[in-house]
C-alpha cells in the first residue's frame, strides 16, 4: 500500500499538479476573462438563477436550492459556475487513478478542452452524475446520502442507479455488440429511433404533458448525424467492444467503468437521435474520451503491437 501511494503521488503527482493548475486557469479564462455566451440551456439556467424558485424543476429541487443559497451569500451566476468547476476537480483527479500514465494526456486534455462550458449547459445532469461518482468513490454507508441527492438533482440518475443494481449481470458484454450493431444499422438507414419517438409521443399525449410533448418534438427534430456526434459514436463503439472483451475474460466490474460502459451502449442504441442519445446515455456520450482512456488502460501492448489484457502482461 505504501509503495502504491509513493508511486501514485511521486511519479504522477507532478502530472496531477500541472493539470490542476491548468484546469483552474482554464476555468478563470473561460468564465471570467472570455466568458461563455448565455444561450440555449445556459441562458435558461441564468434566468432561473436570477428569478427562479425551488419548484422550477419539480422534484429536481437541488440545483434551485443551490441557486438561492449562492444568491444569499452574494454570488453571481458566473461565480456559481466557477465554484461548480472547482468542485468537479475532486472526482476528475480521483477517477484519473483508473487511467495508466501514458493515457493521462487524453484523459486530462478532455477536461481542459471540452468540459467548460459544457457542464454549465447541462448543469443539473452533470451535477447529478457528480454526486453518483462521489457515492461510488466513497464506499461507506454515509455515501448513500449522495446517491439519494443525485435523484433530486436530475431524474436521469435513476438510469445510473439501475445500472449499479445490475452490476453482477453477465449480459452486459453482449449488449455492447448489440448496441454497436444498431449504430452501424442506423448508418445504413435502419430506423429504430422512429419507433421510440412514436412511443414517447403516445405517452406524452396520454399524460397530457405539454412540456414532455415539446421535448419529444425537439428530439424528433434532431435525428441526423453531425460530424461531432459521429466521431463520439465511433469512439464509444471501440471502447465498448474492448471493454466487453475485458468483462468476458476478467468478470471484474468497476462500477464507474460499468456506468460508462452501459451509458455508452445506451447512447449507441439511440444514436439516430443525438438529443435522446446524449441525454439517456449521458455518462458515455459526454465523457467518451475519459472512458476510452480508462478502457485502453485495461490493456497493454506486447512486442509493440499485440494487444493483451493487463493481467496477462508482465509488470
Describe this structure in words.
This protein is an all-alpha fold and about 325 residues long. It folds into 2 domains: about 1-165, no CATH class; about 170-315, no CATH class. About 70% of the residues lie in helices and about 5% in strands. It contains 18 helices and 2 strands. The chain has a two-stranded antiparallel ribbon. Strand 1 and strand 2 (about 305-310) form a beta hairpin. The two termini are about 15 Å apart.
Question: How do the strands and helices of this protein lay out in sequence?
Answer:
Layout lengths: L1 H9 L2 H21 L6 H12 L10 H11 L4 H19 L8 H10 L4 H4 L1 H15 L6 H10 L3 H9 L6 H16 L5 H15 L2 H11 L6 H24 L4 H15 L4 H7 L1 H5 L1 H9 L2 E4 L3 E4 L6
Antiparallel strand pairs: 1-2
